[in-house]
Amino acid sequence: MRKYGLIGYPLSHSFSQRYFTEKFEREKISGCSYQAYPLRQIRELPGLLQDPLLCGLNVTIPYKEQVIPFLHVQDPVVLEVGACNCIAIRDGRLTGYNTDVVGFRQSLEGKLQAHHTRALVLGTGGAAKAVEYTLRKLGIAYQVVSRQDRPGGSIRYEQVDAAMLRACTLVINTTPLGMYPHVETFPPLPYEAIGPKHYLFDLVYNPEKTAFLERGAARGAAIENGYEMLILQAEESWRIWNEGGR
Asked: Which domains does the chain have, with CATH numbers?
Protein backbone atom coordinates (compact mmCIF):
# COMPACT_ATOMS: atom_id res chain seq x y z
CA MET A 1 0.00 0.00 0.00
CA ARG A 2 1.28 3.46 -0.94
CA LYS A 3 -0.11 6.28 1.16
CA TYR A 4 -0.49 9.92 0.17
CA GLY A 5 -2.16 12.77 1.95
CA LEU A 6 -2.74 16.42 2.68
CA ILE A 7 -1.44 18.34 5.69
CA GLY A 8 -2.90 21.65 6.86
CA TYR A 9 -5.35 22.97 9.40
CA PRO A 10 -8.28 22.89 9.37
CA LEU A 11 -9.13 20.36 6.67
CA SER A 12 -12.89 20.08 6.97
CA HIS A 13 -13.43 20.42 3.21
CA SER A 14 -10.53 18.66 1.48
CA PHE A 15 -10.61 18.89 -2.31
CA SER A 16 -7.47 16.76 -2.55
CA GLN A 17 -8.80 13.77 -0.64
CA ARG A 18 -11.95 13.61 -2.75
CA TYR A 19 -10.06 14.21 -5.98
CA PHE A 20 -7.43 11.52 -5.48
CA THR A 21 -9.89 8.97 -4.12
CA GLU A 22 -12.03 9.43 -7.23
CA LYS A 23 -8.92 9.38 -9.44
CA PHE A 24 -7.79 6.04 -8.00
CA GLU A 25 -11.26 4.56 -8.62
CA ARG A 26 -11.68 6.08 -12.08
CA GLU A 27 -8.24 5.08 -13.35
CA LYS A 28 -8.27 1.72 -11.53
CA ILE A 29 -5.12 2.58 -9.59
CA SER A 30 -4.78 -0.09 -6.92
CA GLY A 31 -2.68 -0.17 -3.78
CA CYS A 32 -2.94 3.57 -3.13
CA SER A 33 -4.83 5.67 -0.61
CA TYR A 34 -5.09 9.39 0.09
CA GLN A 35 -6.02 10.86 3.46
CA ALA A 36 -6.40 14.26 5.06
CA TYR A 37 -4.05 14.83 7.99
CA PRO A 38 -5.18 17.90 9.97
CA LEU A 39 -2.10 18.90 11.97
CA ARG A 40 -2.79 21.49 14.65
CA GLN A 41 0.91 22.38 14.70
CA ILE A 42 3.63 21.76 12.10
CA ARG A 43 5.71 20.12 14.85
CA GLU A 44 3.29 17.17 14.58
CA LEU A 45 4.73 16.35 11.14
CA PRO A 46 7.61 14.11 12.32
CA GLY A 47 5.11 11.81 14.01
CA LEU A 48 3.18 11.43 10.76
CA LEU A 49 6.39 10.71 8.89
CA GLN A 50 6.98 7.62 11.02
CA ASP A 51 4.54 5.77 8.74
CA PRO A 52 6.79 3.77 6.36
CA LEU A 53 4.00 3.54 3.76
CA LEU A 54 3.75 7.33 3.32
CA CYS A 55 5.07 8.30 -0.13
CA GLY A 56 3.89 11.86 -0.68
CA LEU A 57 2.12 14.83 0.82
CA ASN A 58 0.34 17.92 -0.37
CA VAL A 59 0.63 20.97 1.86
CA THR A 60 -1.99 23.68 2.36
CA ILE A 61 -2.76 26.59 4.71
CA PRO A 62 -1.03 27.41 7.01
CA TYR A 63 2.04 25.24 6.41
CA LYS A 64 3.34 26.02 2.90
CA GLU A 65 6.13 28.10 4.39
CA GLN A 66 6.43 26.44 7.81
CA VAL A 67 7.15 23.04 6.26
CA ILE A 68 10.36 24.12 4.54
CA PRO A 69 12.73 23.47 7.52
CA PHE A 70 11.59 19.81 7.47
CA LEU A 71 12.71 19.29 3.85
CA HIS A 72 15.96 17.55 3.00
CA VAL A 73 15.93 18.87 -0.60
CA GLN A 74 14.18 21.88 -2.14
CA ASP A 75 13.27 22.08 -5.81
CA PRO A 76 14.72 25.27 -7.40
CA VAL A 77 11.23 26.79 -7.56
CA VAL A 78 10.73 26.25 -3.82
CA LEU A 79 14.11 27.86 -3.18
CA GLU A 80 13.04 30.97 -5.09
CA VAL A 81 9.39 31.11 -4.04
CA GLY A 82 9.89 30.24 -0.37
CA ALA A 83 6.77 28.05 -0.27
CA CYS A 84 6.18 24.33 -0.74
CA ASN A 85 2.88 22.56 -1.39
CA CYS A 86 4.08 19.12 -2.52
CA ILE A 87 6.48 16.71 -0.84
CA ALA A 88 7.90 13.50 -2.28
CA ILE A 89 9.09 11.00 0.32
CA ARG A 90 11.76 8.54 -0.83
CA ASP A 91 14.02 6.52 1.46
CA GLY A 92 13.10 8.74 4.38
CA ARG A 93 14.12 11.92 2.58
CA LEU A 94 11.67 14.75 1.89
CA THR A 95 11.95 16.69 -1.37
CA GLY A 96 9.79 19.78 -1.65
CA TYR A 97 8.13 21.13 -4.80
CA ASN A 98 5.68 23.89 -5.65
CA THR A 99 2.91 22.67 -7.93
CA ASP A 100 0.85 25.82 -7.29
CA VAL A 101 3.13 27.53 -9.79
CA VAL A 102 2.30 25.00 -12.50
CA GLY A 103 -1.42 25.00 -11.78
CA PHE A 104 -1.75 28.76 -11.52
CA ARG A 105 0.15 29.57 -14.70
CA GLN A 106 -1.66 27.05 -16.87
CA SER A 107 -5.05 28.15 -15.55
CA LEU A 108 -4.28 31.88 -15.70
CA GLU A 109 -3.14 31.84 -19.31
CA GLY A 110 -6.54 30.70 -20.58
CA LYS A 111 -7.98 34.24 -20.34
CA LEU A 112 -4.79 36.31 -20.21
CA GLN A 113 -4.69 39.11 -22.79
CA ALA A 114 -1.89 41.34 -24.09
CA HIS A 115 -3.21 44.32 -22.11
CA HIS A 116 -2.93 42.48 -18.80
CA THR A 117 0.48 43.98 -18.02
CA ARG A 118 -0.11 45.16 -14.44
CA ALA A 119 -1.57 43.17 -11.58
CA LEU A 120 -2.71 43.42 -7.99
CA VAL A 121 -1.94 40.38 -5.81
CA LEU A 122 -4.25 40.26 -2.81
CA GLY A 123 -2.64 38.47 0.13
CA THR A 124 0.85 37.52 1.26
CA GLY A 125 0.72 33.81 2.15
CA GLY A 126 2.34 30.80 0.52
CA ALA A 127 -0.07 30.79 -2.42
CA ALA A 128 0.65 34.48 -3.03
CA LYS A 129 4.34 33.68 -3.34
CA ALA A 130 3.60 31.18 -6.12
CA VAL A 131 1.48 33.80 -7.86
CA GLU A 132 4.23 36.42 -7.58
CA TYR A 133 6.79 33.98 -8.99
CA THR A 134 4.55 33.23 -11.96
CA LEU A 135 3.90 36.89 -12.71
CA ARG A 136 7.63 37.58 -12.69
CA LYS A 137 8.18 34.75 -15.17
CA LEU A 138 5.42 36.17 -17.39
CA GLY A 139 6.85 39.69 -17.24
CA ILE A 140 3.74 41.12 -15.55
CA ALA A 141 4.37 43.95 -13.09
CA TYR A 142 2.48 43.57 -9.83
CA GLN A 143 1.67 45.22 -6.53
CA VAL A 144 1.02 43.15 -3.41
CA VAL A 145 -1.92 44.25 -1.24
CA SER A 146 -2.23 43.20 2.40
CA ARG A 147 -4.16 44.00 5.56
CA GLN A 148 -0.86 44.70 7.27
CA ASP A 149 2.44 46.26 6.28
CA ARG A 150 4.93 43.71 4.96
CA PRO A 151 8.64 44.19 4.27
CA GLY A 152 9.22 44.38 0.54
CA GLY A 153 6.72 46.95 -0.60
CA SER A 154 3.17 45.72 -0.03
CA ILE A 155 0.44 48.29 0.40
CA ARG A 156 -2.78 48.25 2.42
CA TYR A 157 -6.23 47.82 0.91
CA GLU A 158 -7.17 51.39 1.75
CA GLN A 159 -4.33 52.57 -0.50
CA VAL A 160 -5.88 50.94 -3.57
CA ASP A 161 -7.86 53.76 -5.17
CA ALA A 162 -9.92 53.77 -8.36
CA ALA A 163 -7.03 55.00 -10.49
CA MET A 164 -4.77 52.18 -9.35
CA LEU A 165 -7.46 49.57 -9.93
CA ARG A 166 -8.18 50.90 -13.40
CA ALA A 167 -4.48 50.62 -14.24
CA CYS A 168 -4.09 47.11 -12.83
CA THR A 169 -6.35 45.09 -15.09
CA LEU A 170 -5.32 41.74 -13.58
CA VAL A 171 -6.45 41.19 -9.98
CA ILE A 172 -5.63 37.93 -8.17
CA ASN A 173 -7.14 37.01 -4.82
CA THR A 174 -4.95 34.60 -2.84
CA THR A 175 -6.77 35.15 0.48
CA PRO A 176 -9.56 32.93 1.89
CA LEU A 177 -12.03 35.82 1.74
CA GLY A 178 -15.28 34.54 0.23
CA MET A 179 -14.52 30.87 0.88
CA TYR A 180 -17.35 28.69 2.17
CA PRO A 181 -18.89 29.10 4.71
CA HIS A 182 -17.99 32.81 4.81
CA VAL A 183 -19.33 33.44 1.32
CA GLU A 184 -20.41 37.00 2.09
CA THR A 185 -16.82 38.26 2.53
CA PHE A 186 -14.68 39.80 -0.21
CA PRO A 187 -11.54 41.93 -0.54
CA PRO A 188 -12.29 45.63 0.07
CA LEU A 189 -11.63 47.27 -3.30
CA PRO A 190 -13.22 50.13 -5.29
CA TYR A 191 -15.08 47.72 -7.59
CA GLU A 192 -16.68 50.59 -9.51
CA ALA A 193 -13.30 51.03 -11.24
CA ILE A 194 -13.45 47.53 -12.77
CA GLY A 195 -14.42 47.21 -16.43
CA PRO A 196 -14.47 44.79 -19.39
CA LYS A 197 -10.68 44.85 -19.74
CA HIS A 198 -10.19 43.43 -16.26
CA TYR A 199 -9.44 39.81 -15.42
CA LEU A 200 -10.23 38.69 -11.88
CA PHE A 201 -8.72 35.39 -10.71
CA ASP A 202 -9.71 33.91 -7.35
CA LEU A 203 -7.75 30.98 -5.92
CA VAL A 204 -10.87 30.09 -3.93
CA TYR A 205 -13.00 27.42 -5.65
CA ASN A 206 -15.84 26.95 -3.14
CA PRO A 207 -18.23 28.59 -3.92
CA GLU A 208 -17.80 28.45 -7.68
CA LYS A 209 -18.35 32.20 -7.95
CA THR A 210 -17.19 34.13 -4.90
CA ALA A 211 -18.45 37.58 -3.97
CA PHE A 212 -15.17 38.92 -5.39
CA LEU A 213 -15.80 37.28 -8.75
CA GLU A 214 -19.47 38.26 -8.75
CA ARG A 215 -18.53 41.91 -8.41
CA GLY A 216 -16.07 41.62 -11.27
CA ALA A 217 -18.51 39.81 -13.54
CA ALA A 218 -21.16 42.45 -12.85
CA ARG A 219 -18.76 45.05 -14.27
CA GLY A 220 -18.00 42.99 -17.38
CA ALA A 221 -14.66 41.54 -16.28
CA ALA A 222 -13.36 38.11 -17.24
CA ILE A 223 -13.30 35.83 -14.19
CA GLU A 224 -11.74 32.54 -13.16
CA ASN A 225 -11.90 30.57 -9.92
CA GLY A 226 -9.32 28.21 -8.47
CA TYR A 227 -10.88 24.89 -9.44
CA GLU A 228 -8.88 24.26 -12.61
CA MET A 229 -5.71 25.36 -10.83
CA LEU A 230 -6.38 22.77 -8.11
CA ILE A 231 -6.81 19.98 -10.64
CA LEU A 232 -3.64 20.97 -12.50
CA GLN A 233 -1.54 21.17 -9.35
CA ALA A 234 -2.96 17.85 -8.11
CA GLU A 235 -2.01 16.12 -11.36
CA GLU A 236 1.45 17.68 -11.21
CA SER A 237 1.82 16.30 -7.67
CA TRP A 238 0.89 12.83 -8.88
CA ARG A 239 3.43 13.07 -11.69
CA ILE A 240 6.16 14.14 -9.25
CA TRP A 241 5.36 11.30 -6.83
CA ASN A 242 5.51 8.75 -9.63
CA GLU A 243 8.13 10.17 -11.99
CA GLY A 244 10.60 11.72 -9.58
CA GLY A 245 10.07 15.45 -10.13
CA ARG A 246 10.61 17.80 -13.03
From this structure: 2-97 (3.40.50.10860), 102-228 (3.40.50.720)
